[in-house]
Amino acid sequence: MWKLWAKLRARSGKIDDDLSEEIQSHLDLIASDRIAGGMNPDDARAAARREFGNATGVHERARDAWRFTSLDAALNDVRYALRAMRRAPAFSLAVLLTLGLGIGATTAIFSVVYAVLLRPLPYPSAERLVWLGEATPKAQGISVTWINFEHWRRENHSFEEMAGFQGGSGTMTGRGHAQQLHGMAVTSAFFRLTGWQPQAGRLFLESDDAPNAAPVVIVSHEFWRQTLGGGPNAIGASLVINGRACQIVGVLRSGQSYSSGATDFYMPLGPEAGRTTKRASHGSIRVLALLKPGVTLAAAKADLDGILERLASADPGPEDDHKAYAEFLADRRTGDVRLTLYMLMGAVLLVLLIACANSGSLLAVRNSLRAREIAIRAAIGAGRRRIARQLLTENLVMAALGGGLGVLLAYFCLRVIQHAGPRSIPRLAEAAIDVPVLIFAVLVTCASGLLAALAPLMGAGRLDLSRALKEGAPGSGSGRKRGKVRNALVVAEIATTLVLTFGAALLVRSLIAATRADPGFEPANLLALELNLPRSRYQSPESIWRFYGQLLEDVRNEPGITSAGAVYCPPLAGSCGDWWYSIADLPAPARTDVPLALTNIAGPSYLKTIQARMLAGRGFAESDRKGAPLVAIVNEELARRWWLAPQMAIGHHLKLGGPYQEGETMEIVGVVSNLSQAGLDQPAAPEVFFPFAQRAQSGMVVMVRTAGNASAFVPALRRHVSSLDPNIAIQSLRVFEERLGASLARRRFSTMLFGAFAALGIVLAAVGIYGVLNAWVSARQKEIAIRLAVGARGARILGWAGFHALRLALAGMALGATCAWAASRWLNSLVFGVSARDPAIFAAACGGILLLASAAAAGPLWKAMRVDAVRNLHEG
Amino acid sequence: MSTVDKPPAPLEFIQGTLDVLVLSSLQLGPNHAYGISLHLQQQSGNEFLVDNGSLYPALQRLLQREWVAAQWKTSPNGRRARYYRLTPAGRKQVVAATSKWLRFVEAMGRVLAAES
């Protein structure tokens, strides 16, 4: 910008210099001719000046030949616009702030949308990377079995490369305290797909995928530096993970991570997974694949489906109806955030629209006050296009300054958003006001400038010159046409604000509903201690039961701890696995209709400890052990799917795997209230609990109920674990209430932002309505005075002006209600506990807007009532 | 009352003619503003008196349209002056404009001759 300015200045300076010099040389040439003709030098110079004419005038006229042809003219307009802004500081500040807030909020949200949704993932050919899983009629994207993966990899024609991977964790021993690490098991192709390079050593080779390959491990740069000391001799050293010594063959470069959390180590997937012999044995393998150029996702999926069909006939099994599930990795990463972000983007664009309408109407009002100035300019020869260009430049200058302010605001907004935003939004921390975002800001600024300019321009174009000059008063230019434009802007503002308010009210109501939702247990004074016993030393179920039994006993003996119980998947932990089931003594469902239930494992005192309500039957007892009849507890949701009342479920038998697959049958001995597994704002899913003593699991969460402040017992719990076995790493240990709050973090975040946008919209709209009505009354002072003079009472005037305001408000609300009604369809998946078309909320939003319009109209209406008839008519 | 005939007042340029005359004068070779005005005055038999207030803006217009280019040079008598010369586009323009003006003059002459 400065360069351009400097260049222009330099060019215009050169023209001036050249002209001065040229005129001087011209004078010299004439003078030298005169001297040659016999004149003395002084007379000759005087004669030359006379003959040449007015040198300054010539200079100016020659320079003017350049003016109004190029950017010079625009710069002139800009200078004029800045002067005009300085003349009306309050007005300019109002427009600047309005535009700045609108553009700032929009830019901030866009920077988040760009970083999270639009920016390509940091892998080569990221746009062709596909995430693969298996699909059943009931579940999408479940894990791929190793054998299916191997067939896909070898037989497909759609992918350039395919890598299997699974997340996991491992306990590292042999280096001081036992430490819980996050790891991934991957096939060698994984690193080719991610494009990662080692900082030292090597990545996995095809030979590492073989079932009998030597145990090797690759560590992350961060793990190498922080835990291994960052020394150069890490390569070749051994790392004991889950009791197995692995040789470190490579160190990745810094910042290379597949998931949002840190991954400490990578192991080859092949050696362990390759031992499976059954096609249907699922681990938690997912597949990353690179689509060949030009192949569509649907075609690739059909290709994989074909392979599965061939396998189903060649090697029939229980999962012959499984299909492939394919999704672009970029979509996979952002799936559930996308809707939230698009909703916020929509909301912020509405705010921007209000800001534009507002500045537009402000500018229109001011232009009508400037009608005389414009008329004079037209009278002294400025063409209509010239005037339009000047007004447009003024708006664009205003928008540019507003945009600058907006970018500044966006920077601070983004910092707040990043600080307050939930960590579950991927790549939120990467959002920045960078070049693409700045380009967006410039585009938005230009668009808002043009949009805001539209209204006043429509007025200026129709300016009636002679009338504007004849009518004396400022504000005389507010002809009917212009009034219509302004009224339309007010209607649009009210409509947009109604949509925003309605959306915000729905979200706030949902948040309240989610916060108040019954989690099914008592979260206060509860600690969750997550453990994972190393498989090397806890192989037999007996050893696992013995460890947890002893730990629970020790913990219960700690003074101040009232109860403790173990569970596999505590509330809010999300899905820890689901499986098909059926009720053995009820009619079997069709093959494609077998229902799914979440599966969970609980010790005898778990439900008591979290104070879940038993609706029927009993909880697990010590007698429900190995060798005793198999039993299960189901949740209310499952029971109500089959029976009218929870009590009726007791005594029935639940068959795992459904009627068409192998699986154990167990007696339902209890029904428990629904526990929020996925989150407080998620609907309950059917769930089955198995007794821990009939189903050993090395990774369990010990829930501990304390008498007082739960966090005070954290050290005691750590001590009990390490005194029992110092080689066990604690995966996590935290106060459960925090987890409960965190599960609503995203909803709270989006509600907060949407609410802020709605509030901003309301303030802007109020200012806009006030401004336009005020101008309307100002322009009609004389009319009101005449009405008063011929006998109208104040009430009559109020009614007349009030009717005008009410008409605008009602038109805006009708339009807004229609839009809100239509938009509520999109909000459906984001609301909780209420309908997206909740009539009470809808009515409340309408009432609120009516209140807002009344408040904004009160000032101007008061002014209309107090018009002094005598003074006004005298002045006229 | 004077019996001596008043010398006729110099002709004023019709809108647009000065540009063409300047261009055509440059066909003879590069020249500076003073030279151009002298040339036009002499060639027209002193009928045209070139006003610098018109000549200079005309030269700037021609520069903008890139029909002429300007360069500082030293004149034969040792004075520095800004010399204008025709560009290739300017050369084309002279030909087009000259034929247009000749047609205009001829047509005008015919009409006026028929009336007198």
Describe this structure in words.
The complex is a heterodimer of chains A (876) and B (116). Chain A folds into five domains: 2-66, no CATH class; 72-124 and 334-477, no CATH class; 138-320, no CATH class; 480-517 and 744-876, no CATH class; 534-727, no CATH class. Chain A is 53% helix and 15% strand. Chain A has 26 helices and 21 strands. Chain A has a six-stranded mixed beta barrel with strand order 2-3-8-5-7-6. In chain A, strands 13-14-19-16-18-17 form a six-stranded mixed beta barrel. A four-stranded antiparallel β-sheet of chain A has the order 12-20-11-21. In chain A, β17 and β18 form a beta hairpin. The radius of gyration of chain A is 38 Å and the shape is globular. Chain B has four helices and two strands, in the order αααββα. Chain B has a single domain (17-115), classed as Winged helix-like DNA-binding domain superfamily/Winged helix DNA-binding domain (Arc Repressor Mutant, subunit A). The model of chain B has no long low-confidence stretch (mean pLDDT 83). Chains A and B meet through α1 and α3 of A and α2, α3 and β2 of B.
